[in-house]
């Protein structure tokens, strides 16, 4: 069980990935994002998750560079993730997209590179490109995002490298238990995006009751539930007090009864697109 914001899980290739990271979805380029990245690193976060389509890799990179130069943290202490967008899912296009992301971030390598969405008929070529990057030592780990079981099975049929991570929408009302079981069986680490359901769970009575019992916020209870289930999580925030609050998860533990109550909130309810039915 993780005891600290810098605790890591070991991916199936031996690379260590922090359990907790900063998400930057829907945060525009600019000083607010640069400061958020610096704040997170200053507060002990070591993982930042971005994507080409977020259009903010430059500011994420700037925040990382400034944090490194101001704090003396080494690049290899950080874990940086980006994702290849749907328009670039060909073999050559995905290789080129990786170089573009690196250039924007101002980095020599990424710790994790993901296929963002399972676009039918395209993601296998992209996976071949990610395998090439991985085998050439250009990226430390590779994975996918928003893949259902059948997408994973399809990739793994021809893959020479099994995905190390599957980043999916996951929160108490979409707990993805079947997918989590499948990934656990194949050594694929599940990572939750939108762990707080974009704020929609922050008034939930069951969660409020559990939070009050621990003198914690609902957000902290949900993120703690992720950790106790062995789910990597990347809550998004640009506000310093939230960034600090989201990392204050290591001085309490949910009982098995509380975990079970949260498990029972599942309704298979998505707020994001359905990976089997999207048109972008």
TrEMBL record:
Residues 21-266 form the NADP-dependent oxidoreductase domain. InterPro entries: AKR, AKR5G, Aldo/ket_reductase_CS, NAD(P)_OxRdtase_dom_sf, NADP_OxRdtase_dom. This is Aldo/keto reductase. The lineage of its organism: Bacteria, Bacillati, Bacillota, Bacilli, Bacillales.
């Amino acid at each position: 069980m993780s005891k600290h914001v810098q605790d890591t899980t070991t991916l199936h290739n031996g690379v260590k990935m922090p359990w907790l990271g900063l998400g930057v979805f829907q945060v525009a380029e600019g000083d607010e994002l640069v400061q958020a990245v610096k704040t997170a690193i200053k507060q002990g976060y070591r993982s930042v998750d971005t994507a080409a389509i977020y259009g903010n890799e430059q500011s994420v990179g700037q925040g990382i560079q400034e944090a490194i130069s101001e704090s003396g943290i080494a690049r290899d202490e950080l874990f940086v993730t980006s994702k290849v967008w749907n328009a670039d899912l060909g073999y050559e296009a995905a290789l080129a997209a990786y170089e573009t992301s690196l250039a924007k971030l101002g980095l020599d390598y990424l710790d994790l590179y993901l296929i963002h969405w399972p676009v039918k008929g395209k993601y296998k070529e992209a996976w071949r490109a990610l395998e090439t990057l991985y085998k050439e030592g250009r990226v430390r780990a590779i994975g996918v995002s928003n893949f259902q079981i059948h997408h994973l099975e399809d990739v793994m049929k021809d893959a020479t490298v099994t995905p190390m991570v599957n980043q999916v929408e996951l929160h108490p009302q979409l707990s993805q238990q079947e997918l989590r079981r499948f990934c656990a069986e194949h050594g694929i680490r599940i990572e939750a995006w939108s762990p707080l359901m974009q704020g929609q769970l922050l008034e939930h009575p069951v969660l409020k009751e559990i939070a009050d019992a621990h003198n914690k916020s609902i957000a902290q209870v949900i993120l703690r539930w992720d950790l106790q289930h062995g789910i990597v999580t990347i809550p998004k925030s640009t506000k310093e007090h939230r960034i600090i609050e989201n990392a204050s998860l290591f001085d309490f533990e949910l009982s098995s009864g509380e975990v079970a109550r949260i498990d029972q909130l599942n309704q298979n309810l998505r707020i994001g697109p359905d990976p089997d039915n999207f048109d972008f």
